[in-house]
Amino acid sequence: MKKNFFLLLFLTVAVGLLAASATVYQCPMHPWIKSDKPGDKCTICGMALVAAPTSDSTTAADPNLVTLTPAAASVVGVQTAEVRRAPLVRSLRVSGIIEDDDTRHRIISSRVPGRVEKLFVTYVGAEVRKGEPLATLYSPEVLTAEREYVERLKAGTAFPATERAATRERLLDLDVPPEDIDTLEHTLEPTATIILRAPMSGTVVARHVYEGQQLNKGQTEKESQLFEIADFSSMWFVFDAYEPDLAWLRVGQSVAVTVASLPGKVMTAPIAFIDPNLNEMTRTAKVRVVLPNNDHGLRHKQTGYATVRLEIPDVLLAPRSAVLQQGAEPIVFLEHKDRAYLARRVSPGRVGDDFVEILSGLHAGDRVVTAGGLLLDGQAQLARASLSGDDLSHYHEMTPPAAPAGATK
Fold it and tell me: Which residue ranges form the domains of the chain, and what is each CATH number?
């Protein structure tokens, strides 16, 4: 009885030793590094070797299917996520310039020769209201035109009504305000001065004239400019959008704008205009946002920063980390079965903050690898190389560089 017990114990230990000696250990990262001793480490990466799968646990010779042992799976740390249909969201961050509203910008010029008698606005930045005087001009030509008009008024029916109307039109052409002409019709007293008034309320952003300055005939349009007025009660935020971003942008999208001079303040307004013309050099289009500025907190020409929340509704989404580039083709690893993952080609579309649009190759409900995919891709490439009979020694053996000619050892 005792003899049989020791014989059974010996056979159990012998079988265990034989099984242990038959176990092969390999590196999860470099599976061609193998050993028959547990606890050895990979000579390339230093990772602990794990038990290699036995012959009855191997899968079919499919180079796109990677099956991990439980030990390898714990080392690789594969994580998966579900492919689903949902809105694709992207945050576009841009910088631009705060401009004044072009529709509320006026240039005041002189259309008569003469001299600047008095300036009521003497500095840039002055606030003016519509109808307020900007300057007084002295012009003998205006005096002559007013005298002719008064003569026709005093003559009554001696002159045809058309002549009287023509002389009035001449005064208007000389930039005499209609209210001054009405006053002249009542007083019948010609004057050589014109009061230049603000055509709109706003801020004087340019002044090109001084008291005593002579205004002559034949001046260019630039030389005849006296003032520029801009209404800063609303401002434009203008930024450049690159061609790929134009597919996301549309009029009415909400834009959150910030400027350094107003820390903590976020101004939200919709996109008002997208320029249909691209800049040939930068390949960008101008995008405009109209911002209210009643308190004049926004400064002309200052830099602004904005975030545009872009959203494409109801598309098939996969995490960005799931899409790998294998050569020239994007692939994902699809969860096939327990610890088995299948490489599949996909056609990605637009890229969001965390997800990418999938045009083909996947279906809603599929689970794709989001962590550990690069290791699976390495295993798949090694499997393809082994099936084709390629030599894998170049992965871990490097030929030392040849010694230069004439070198001594």
Answer: 75-86+314-388 (2.40.420.20), 91-102+233-313 (2.40.30.170), 107-230 (2.40.50.100)
